[in-house]
Structures
1.
Amino acid sequence: MAKNLGRLFSLVMGLSEPKLGLSTARSVSVNSARRLICSSATRQQGSPKSQGEAISETQEKIQSEKEQDNGDGDGDGEDEGDEPDLNKETGEVGGPRGPEPTRYGDWERNGRCYDF
Amino acid sequence: VPGMLYISRSCGASNLLRIKRSSFSHNPLIEIYKPLRTRIESCLRDGSTKYFDFAVIGSGVAGLRYALEVAKHGTVAVITKAEPHESNTNYAQGGVSAVLCPSDSVESHMQDTIIAGAYLCDEETVKSSISSLAHVQVVCTEGPDRIRELIAMGASFDHGEDGNLHLAREGGHSHRRIVHAADMTGREIERALLEAVLNDPNIYVFQHHFAIDLLTSQDGSETVCHGVDILNTETKEVIRFISKVTLLASGGVGHIYPTTTNPPVATGDGMAMAHRAQAVISNMEFVQFHPTALADEGLPISPTKTRENAFLITEAVRGDGGILYNLDMQRFMPFYDERAELAPRDVVARGIDDQLKKRNEKYVLLDISHKPREKILSHFPNIAAECLRYGLDITSQPIPVVPAAHYMCGGVRAGLQGETNVCCLYVAGEVACTGLHGANRLASNSLLEALVFARRAVQPSIDRMKSSLLDRCASDCWDRPVYPTSLGTSVLEKIVRRTREVRKELQLIMWKYVGIVRSTIRLKTAEQRIGELELEWEAYLFQQGWEPTMVGLEACEMRNLFCCAKLVVSSALARHESRGLHYTIDFPNLEESKRLPTIIFPCSTPMDSTWSSRQVHKQIC
């Protein structure tokens, strides 16, 4: 996950080329990318007050799921030590954690399908 | 032409499919005689013309890959309507398919492609679709080399613990063969290619340059492309690009539908321009949808801004036990398939579409709330978070979903070298119809197709370029389009507002009548309604003072959307069977004798044609 963030940041830097006058802020335009950059810093916003505690509980759970996915490696069956980036389930280095993204046909990441 | 399933509004069609092999030895436009002094003056009078050896329209994987090769032989203009990275490529996050594993084979990849494409059923029937089989073969054979080149150019793909490329296996593939970069393969490829392009001194990138129409002339029975007229959407200036060779790599057309995964730039500009330029279009009825995109209309809190591209809910939700209901909470999938929610994606898409049309509703419900809360949140935090933003808790409520348009299998008909029936015009990527995808695209084959055909178009383009003579006065041979400054800001704003409304109306017509489950009567209704809407919109424009040579971004995109929508409807009406992505209740079965591409020939002398079906500039010499 950290590696992905690193890649995204270098993408942003790489795309701000004076030759074209691309603005850094607009370069990374994919929603999921923005979410990746923002999720570890901020809490979820915008839920209606009337749903109260159930909502904030769910929010905390989502937050902790995303943090786990971000690099703890606890309890999801991964090796620590030599290959912290290795996903034992898929045999992939540097890729997404958890089960095979294409296990049901399309490419999924935490529930969102990003290609098929 | 025997052996072709086609519709034609034209007169003589016999010449249109044969690609002339003879070299193009002279430019007919040079034969216009003018005294030398006058010629030079008239050339210099208009400064807004640019001359390039190669013009590339579109900056996705196909356009950039091609540009990098031809740049070794001449000057290249890469013309892109927004920022260079805004392309369907950038949103193709899954992967690229290629045979890269010793236990895999080109034959296997070909077979998976052909089966998915519902195109050929056995060896013997291959002959009548021989061009498609050849396309399948070249793509699957040349794929691995194209991937290696990308890696050499700096694209970074994921590896396995053995240090080799990590190959995933995606729906429809019988081997692991998808090369990918985490969940942003398209973006990674785009990044690597763009970096190389920006560093190439022979390539000039023109961003926020919108292509209006191709510049064409008739050389006997053949149409020749000389370049393209462009609108700089920032300065509002019209610029004429004269090029010896043009590559159309403008991508898809998702925005003919209201819900699409495509970014806003995908308005079918290339398909429309090519059709207006007399290029042959093929297989436009085959539109690929994903069954379950988040339906904003079903959310408790409406998003304040219209979503630009769809949030797709993965099939894994159904795989993990999610159930589909209509708004009466009836579980409907068992009526369509015994596998119910676990039926293949296209079957589910059809089931959902059928329910929506029969019941006249806007979305169905995908319910996973019966599963343990912990599991839902740990498997699908992305969906949970997104829905929560709009007041929906997926652990206790169903998710509103609707199918989203994703990929256009059809497009400008391309030969094995990416050539079209228009001389000096080549195509690659989603805008092209190479026959690879047949009636349904196999996952991850689209980036591959773009790479392979972009590369294949290179040598013929170079040969063509070398045998062309550039006439600097060619630019005077067509009327110039103009930006309608003379109409004034408030009229222009009115026109833009009305055009936006018309676009929404067109999208609704397409979704309602040209969706996933089709019928002759619905398609005919669509044809009529689209025709009426188009005339109404054009009348409005001209009433406001718009003239035929005037161009603006919204208006030009609208005319392209109309053009493509009509191509989809005509193609769908022409296919009297159901195959792959085209399903019609009037011909619900596959018909062996109809296993042929749908071809649309252009009309050489359009009668009562609309603004969207004519090129903006008239040839004046």
2.
Amino acid sequence: MSAVMVAKKVTRKWEKLPGKNTFCCDGRVMMARQKGVFYLTLFLIIGTCSLFFAFECPYLAVHLSPAIPVFAIVLFFFVMAMLLRTSFSDPGVLPRAQPDEAMYIEMEIEAANGNVPSGQRPPPRIRNVQINNQIVKLKYCYTCKIFRPPRASHCGICDNCVERFDHHCPWVGNCVGKRNYRYFYLFTLSLSLLTIYIFTFDIVHVVLRSVSDGFVQTLKETPGTVLEVLVCFFTLWSVVGLTGFHTYLVLLNQTTNEDIKGSWSGKNRVQNPYSHRNIVKNCCEVLCGPVYPSVLDRRGLMAELSSSPVMISNAKNYIPDLQTTKTTAPLIPNEQTPEEAKPPLQYRTEEATEPKQSPTVQELPAVDIPPASLTDTAPAKEQVF
Amino acid sequence: MGRGWVRCRWGWMTDHIQKFHNLQELRRSASLATKVFIQRDYSDGTVCQFQTKFPAELDSRIERQLFEDTVKTLNGFYAEAEKIGGQSYLEGCLACTTAYIIFLCMETRYEKVLKKISRYIQEQNEKIYAPRGLLITDPIERGMRVIEISIFEDRGSSGSTSSSSSTSSSSGR
């Protein structure tokens, strides 16, 4: 058998990820599909701040202090940074189970259920774990084929299981979960401050100017003020309220999801097992805890080979696992097995020719090209959110 | 430099070539029999820890103590990465003051520990697991949900192909 000539087309893993996310910048940015409300958020923030810098700041810088616009600029940049971080990060998506893992779990479930008489429904798929003297039920996700870790939930809009799922926020165009909750909280907090700041200085500006020019004349000279005050007034109620609510959640180490479902409401003596019973500790854990890495490896490479099925079946006996799993129908119809898509080409040619060859194996049996961000051999650190 | 250096380099090369050959031998002669998945241990909360319970499938393949040591060491690494203390606070507060832009150029502590874990798993595979026909997959490649251990059947001894002994991969669908 001659050496196989294969055409290698390199794709990144994000292109094959299941779920309803959209990706930009070659996998660096990850958002939900519907982004309309996010654009509205951007427009409102940038629009209102632009009006503030155009109409109020020149007057206030001269008549009060130049520190006012400077602080506004700093706050504006912080708000934008937090918004973009929240919107563009991976919220903590759990990758779906590989076919092997899904099958293993199925077998475990069947073994645990025993013989279910035909016609009867099998029992619900739940695992009980004890966390800090509290029984927590782990539910099985039929889409992702996994038992969800504690505090994880499946987002119907993004079609992913997300760790420490808080809620799906259309205003930021993404889910809010373990990895981006602190950015979301800081976004709402800084936006509240910015709204209050602009609102206050709008009023101050109008008052100061009215003293010299009169109220109506002031409004004629700075029409943007009216718009800003309107936007800020309505934003204040919602954003400040939201910040207050999330501050409450942070202090108790709860998620919006748990709060809505009433998981730890105190009925039947259930208490939040994740809380440290100390608001400072809770706050520190949520806001200053370690920054979790994304487990999705969006920018990892998937080397696709356009090889014929004949080669695959011949090589099946020689190559451990990879091709056998690929050629059988996966449990999840749409799922690719990205990590197993790289059959070591060297082994094929080796088996095809002579066993005496010693091919250059670069690395251990990692079944894919290692994520660029985690290996020392990567030329530059790939920054993904 | 000189002969001593040459000998040292030669030793390193032959050692590595030998290791690669071991894995080559494994791949050449073995085929995947089954996989076993070590699940997460949630008794301490959502911190990443794996169960140290010894799976029955590995009974004849590896000593219990070696397996437990591997899992306990991995658990130690993850605990170190997720430790909430002085260093994580400092990192968090510093990053917050820069609006988290500093993360674009700095490696977080968690990422550093993940690299250590990756090196540790590679070393364990080379030294302990591959010679016994086993292979550990880094949990990060499985979403930190499971430690996947692939069990290879030695084709020379079994005499039959993988399909008869495999229970997971190629069962009829």
